[in-house]
From TrEMBL:
Protein localization: Membrane
Major facilitator superfamily (MFS) profile domain ranges (all copies): 447-910
Entry keyword Membrane: yes
Principal subcellular localization: membrane
Protein name according to UniProt: Major facilitator superfamily domain-containing protein
InterPro entries linked: MFS, MFS_dom, MFS_trans_sf, Sacchrp_dh_NADP-bd
Pfam families, per database record: MFS_1, Sacchrp_dh_NADP
Length: 912
């Protein structure tokens, strides 16, 4: 290739997300005498990009601008004008082939950042030989997708060869941690592959040796994957930990095995028995199983064209991605364990660590820029010695490693010490521990178990009554109080939420928490011994008061026993454990220790009482009480136009207004400071939590009525049929906790929940007396999954974005919405159901009015109706229930406001 060409380098696709980052890196990092141009189809965008470069370094000349269409004639002309083309035009399956072919035909070096193996396999088949003949060095997949795995393997093999004088056997590379999302272009490339290729074609194209110029010897023993890994996804690798399947793994495996095939006849060969695997590090075996099973259930969704059409609308457009402010604190780290291929045991191993303290897409820009530097100004790499062809980043060897290190990429290699028992073999590389001294071992685990038990007791108390509602109404001979069985509990839970948030801020966390647990148990005793509906409601109210303190306390304790990035998975686990209440009290009393130093500890008792803002609580609690009484009376006991109902709504509005004025006057000393209310994440989290919990509770509250009255199931059978919705929620909670802890981001799970919830609730409105059991399980399970997959997102957002001083108050707002929403909307649902039922049965059962239904209950209605008319009555009850569930559909749709408004931050991100 002639060195007298007009340009050293042309960057094609410069105005896309990766293209802009690459342009910026080349401009600031490559030599001043570089002759280069940026190319694309939109001249205006190219000029704007060129102008944006100048403030960074005005002493440099901006790149030339070339407008080019993606056809053979113009791309051939472009390739003849430059020594090297960097292509960031994707999806490559649609837009990359002509550029690749033009470079191969014209002896122009080529780099790209694709991860599209089926397309690359086709390009190798067509143009590898052509590139060798023209001297074109073509290195695709030169970005975050493949370079870390490819270079980690190369470094490990070199270390084994030099220090152990051996070939390399098995190599396991894992993403040890990553902070960063995907761009619109990456998503478009993935979706396009499924649009244009069959599953069989994709499977064959991603076979381990699909890109390799040579296949493994038939004499090489095949290492079988264990049944535990295949079925449950369980794999533990020493020095790496628990592993999960990596979605990008097949791409890495194909590229690394191509490197093996290319280098096998050189002095840097890996070895005949070389075998590469790519993984994703995950927390614990339970997380690995859930990741695996969740992937098996969710992955097939991408095969559905409507899902593929929907995903881009929920994400960045192709060419778009997160802004500079959102990615500046991102990072990633790869780890590698490579075995020497020797008969001795234990086998000698090399360990590799690669880390970059910036976004993966910025790393791609660095990888492309430094590879370009080597291709243009070096001539002694294996890539140059091959003389051309479709190669890999590993063929750039030592020069590439040195350049990436100079650009800020940490790459360390060392021998494994088999005697070493510590958690991290890279001791010297691990940053000093600047986190608080969190509890560990038995003390930590028993505290977590106690929190799980306490939360699940409260969760059961909030929801288990729903299954017994038909029987309770028959026992007390009233339907009028049904709404209060839930609302009394929810009212006290949400009304005292801000008060408890202040108590945990000002007083001993342990003492307040223990007191809350005692109140909860007293309320449970009152419910168990209630002789009347009124007494039962009082017990529910006392229990709700105790649960308000427990709920706020669990998250206050969690903040003091776990670092931020590990809280989501444990918050999810807290929702699925089995209860033994009194044991939990003992565990918390003996094992949890209060934080040693808090600014509030210096306040006197009188100052703490003033900080509690008791006046605001005396305004807030009666206002909510007036609201709930009005909702329970309106349309049933009294018409909406009745003076009593209107008066209660007026009392609610007046007291709430005075409460808000008082909050504004008190400023930062208020029970709920306005700086908390105005926070974007608090608003979004409140909307999402309120609507999510309300949707699932309305469904759960009336499902037992459907099972027991419409389907004539017993209460115990009804309880069994509630399992799908609860199991779906448990699975969603765990997947979100694990996913947030692993990837850092909570917002995608909230968006997924906003998609699933209205669909599931809509499907449940199709229930009728003859709906199949399979449909009941599927629809209710999806509803639970939709409610669970995003449920912990708002709490993760609050803990990520608010300061430690505001954390309890922010969590208090979320927990308030979590309790207030169901209390309000179950009362509204009760009004809808009662009025729907009375209007439908008025002609069948003479004298049936909302007031009569409220006073007698559904059991008495059944006794009033002749058996020959019961089918008609049953259908009417069914239709009334499904119309009530339209409220859940509306609530599910409303959650999208919160999920899209929430800030995209990561629990792994460094907080300022």
């Amino acid at each position: 290739m002639s060195s007298r060409r007009e340009y050293d380098l042309i960057l094609l696709g410069a105005t896309g997300y990766t293209g802009m980052l690459t342009t910026q890196y080349i401009f600031k990092s490559l030599p001043l005498d570089l002759k280069w141009a940026i190319a694309g189809r939109n001249k205006g965008k190219l000029e704007q990009l060129a102008r944006s470069l100048m403030p960074e370094n005005s002493s440099r000349q901006p790149p030339d601008i070339l407008v080019v269409n993606l056809n053979n004639k113009e791309l051939d002309g472009l390739a003849k004008r430059t020594r090297l083309v960097i292509s960031t035009v994707g999806p490559f399956l649609l837009y990359g082939s002509e550029t690749f072919a033009a470079c191969a035909r014209n002896g122009t070096h080529y780099l790209d950042c694709n991860g599209e193996i089926p397309w690359l396999k086709n390009m190798i088949h067509q143009y590898d030989k052509v590139a060798k003949e023209t001297g074109s060095i073509m290195i695709p997949c030169c970005g975050f997708d493949c370079v870390p795995s490819d270079l980690s393997t190369w470094l490990a093999a070199r270390y084994i060869r030099r220090h152990f004088n051996a070939q390399t056997g098995r190599v396991d590379v894992c993403i040890h941690g990553v902070q960063g999302g995907i761009s619109g272009g990456t998503l478009a490339s993935v979706l396009q592959a499924f649009e244009l290729h069959s599953l069989r074609h994709l499977y064959n194209a991603h076979a381990p040796y699909s890109l390799s110029p040579r296949q493994p010897s038939p004499t090489v023993p095949i290492k079988r994957t264990s049944i535990w890994t295949k079925v449950l996804g369980l794999l533990w690798i020493k020095r790496l930990g628990w592993m999960a399947y990596q979605p990008q793994g097949p791409v890495d495996r194909a590229i690394v095995h191509r490197s093996w095939g290319l280098l096998e006849s050189t002095t840097v060969a890996y070895g005949h028995n070389f075998d590469f695997h790519a993984w994703f590090k995950i927390w614990g075996p339970v997380a690995a199983i859930l990741w695996h099973l969740g992937g098996l259930m969710l992955a097939p969704l991408i095969l559905l064209r409507p899902v593929r059409k929907l995903l881009p609308k929920l994400w960045y457009e192709p060419g778009g991605g997160a802004g500079q402010g959102k990615i500046e604190n991102n990072w990633f780290e790869y780890r590698c364990v490579a075995e020497a291929d020797t008969p001795t045991k234990p086998k000698q191993k090399a360990l590799v660590r690669m880390r970059y303290e910036s976004d993966p897409y910025i790393f791609t820009a660095v990888a492309l820029g430094e590879a370009a530097r080597i291709l243009l100004w070096q001539n002694d790499t294996w890539a140059h010695k091959f003389g051309g062809g479709v190669l890999t980043s590993a063929t750039l060897g030592d020069h590439y490693v040195s350049r990436l290190r100079a650009a800020g990429v940490t790459m360390e290699v060392q021998a494994d010490d088999p005697v070493y028992k510590g958690k991290d073999p890279f001791i010297k590389s691990t940053p000093p521990d600047t986190e608080p001294n969190y509890p560990t071992g038995t003390k930590f685990w028993f505290t977590v178990i106690a929190l799980c038990v306490i939360l699940i007791l409260g969760g059961l108390d909030a929801n288990i009554v729903a299954t017994a509602v038909p029987s309770i109404t028959n026992h007390f001979h009233t339907l009028a109080d049904v709404g209060w069985y839930s609302s009394a509990f929810r009212l006290c839970t949400c009304a005292f939420q801000f008060g408890f948030a202040k108590l945990y801020t000002l007083f001993s966390i342990k003492i307040v928490f223990m007191t809350s647990n005692v109140i909860f148990l007293v309320g449970s005793v009152l419910c168990a011994t209630a002789a009347s509906s009124t007494m039962f409601i009082v017990g529910r109210a006392v229990t709700g008061l105790g649960f308000a303190g427990e709920l706020a306390g669990c998250f206050a304790v969690l903040a003091h026993i776990l670092p931020l990035n590990r809280r989501p998975v444990f918050a999810g686990l807290m929702a699925i454990n089995l209860p033994i209440g009194t044991v939990s009290l003992a565990v918390m009393f003996f094992l949890f220790s209060d934080p040693r130093t808090r600014q509030e500890d210096d306040l006197t008792l009188a100052q703490k009482i003033r900080e509690l803002d008791l006046v605001s609580n005396c305004l807030f609690i009666p206002s909510l009480t007036a609201l709930f009484i009005a909702l329970s009376w309106a349309g049933t006991k009294y018409p909406w136009s009745d003076g009593k109902v209107i008066g209660l709504f007026v009392v609610f509005a007046v007291l709430l207004t005075v409460f808000l004025i008082n909050q504004y006057r008190r400023g930062d000393s208020a029970a709920l400071p306005f700086r908390i209310i105005k926070n974007r994440n608090v608003i979004a989290g409140f909307i999402f939590t309120t609507c999510t919990n309300s949707m699932t509770n309305v469904l759960e509250w009336y499902l037992p009525t459907y099972y027991q009255v419409v389907r004539s199931r017993s209460p115990s059978e009804s309880g069994y049929l509630m399992i799908p919705i609860l199991a779906g929620m448990m699975l969603g909670l765990l997947l979100q906790g694990i996913g947030t802890t692993t990837f850092g981001y909570y917002a995608p799970f909230m968006v997924l929940g906003s998609v699933c919830m209205p669909i599931a609730a809509g499907l449940m409105t199709t229930y009728n007396p003859h709906t199949s059991l399979a449909q009941i399980i599927l629809y209710s399970g999806l509803a639970g999954f939709g409610g669970g997959i995003g449920f912990q997102g708002p709490q993760a957002a609050i803990q990520t974005t608010l300061s430690a001083a505001d954390l309890n108050l922010g969590i208090g707002v979320i927990l308030f919405g979590q309790s207030m929403g169901p209390a309000v909307f179950i009362a509204i649902a009760q009004v809808i159901f009662t009025n729907q039922l009375s209007s439908r049965l008025e002609g069948v059962v003479p004298g049936l009015t909302p007031a009569y239904i409220a006073e007698r209950g559904l059991g008495d209605i059944k006794n009033m109706v002749p058996m020959q008319q019961w089918d008609e009555v049953s259908r009417s009850i069914d239709r009334s229930l499904t119309r009530t569930w339209y409220l859940s559909v509306a609530l599910g749709c409303t959650t999208v406001v919160g999920s899209l408004l929430i800030e995209w931050r990561s629990v792994k991100q460094k907080q300022s």
